[in-house]
Amino acid sequence: MAVHYRTQAVVFKKEDRLDADRVFSAFTKDFGRVEVFGKAIRKITSKLKSNIDFFSFSEIEFIQGKNRKTLTDAVSIEKLDGKVHLVEKLEIAYNISNIIDCFIRGQEKDERIWGLIVDISRKLNNIHIVHNKELLYYYFLWNFMFVLGYGPEISNCAVCRQKLNPHSLYFSNKEGGVICKDCAATKKDGVKITPDVVKVLRLILEKDWDILSKLKVGIDSSRLLKEVSDNYCNYLLASNSNYQYSP
Ligand SMILES: [Zn+2]
User: Fold this and answer.
1) Where's the DNA replication/recombination mediator RecO N-terminal domain (predicted)?
2) Label partner for 159 (CA 20 to 30 A): which of 124, 183, 187, 206?
């Protein structure tokens, strides 16, 4: 008799297959990343259909077959609320999903990653009460980097450990954080960044969402935050073969 496994899950990817089937990629509380096969789940008569979806938080049950896991039950805990800002929510959810998909390749339980994914899915659901919606993605990204062991150094120069001068700050992917002007010149490395970007990074890593959600971030700082975040991610993906690089 097949063993039934039951766990909580957040779906970060879904792919349709033939015959109304669908494969869900989910991060689960007890098994880490899993791909679960939803047999005939796209049929109108499917009972499970409404209980598991992109970025939904559900309790799922599956059986482990020879080649795949097959979904046998799903109970919705929280869904991506489509009533407000659905397009923006989906865009943020897709960006977050892409990061999860690239950096988590194998089945491995991780309570800190699980906690972060549940936290972000709940924040995304309550997005109608915050102003800085796009910061949610960076909030996830940098805290996720921290959990993976790539948290950036932002207090002192990542090379010489000297206190940073707010007027000359550089971000180095290779050194894993902010470096001073002298080290940037010696290493011929680093992109000039502003104290505002470092402040946002600090608030993100302190998980101070109350302040972040009310913070006024200018266009230039937003652009710079995007550039630093994208470059850091791409650097890590390109330099580690365990990850799936998709530029
Ligand atoms: Zn330095």
Assistant:
1) 2-77
2) 206
d(CA 203, ligand 1 centre) in Å:
22
Position 129 pLDDT exceeds 70: no
Q: Are 181 and 122 in contact (CB under 8 A)?
A: no
Rounded Cα–Cα distance for residues 59 and 29 (Å): 10
The tokens describing 66, both together, are 């020879």
**Centroid of ligand 1 to alpha carbon of 212 (angstroms):** 28
The residue count for the chain? 247
**What number does CATH give the domain 4-78?**
2.40.50.140
List CB contacts of 180: < 8 A, sequence separation 6 or more: 157, 159, 160, 162, 164, 165, 168, 169, 170
- Give the tens place of pLDDT for each residue, 169-221: 999 999 999 999 999 999 999 999 999 999 999 999 999 998 998 888 999 99
Looking at residue 19, the DSSP 8-state letter turns out to be T
Q: Which stretches of the chain are assigned E, i.e. beta strand?
A: 4-16, 22-28, 32-38, 57-64, 69-78, 169-172, 177-179, 191-193
Tell me how far the alpha carbon of residue 154 lies from the centroid of ligand 1, in angstroms. Answer: 12
What's the CA-to-centroid distance between 137 and ligand 1, angstroms?
29
- On whether the CB atoms of residues 52 and 11 are closer than 8 A, the answer is yes
> pTM for the whole thing?
0.93
CA-closest candidate to residue 187, choices 195, 198, 179, 196 = 179
Ligand 1 centroid, distance to 158 Cα (angstroms): 7
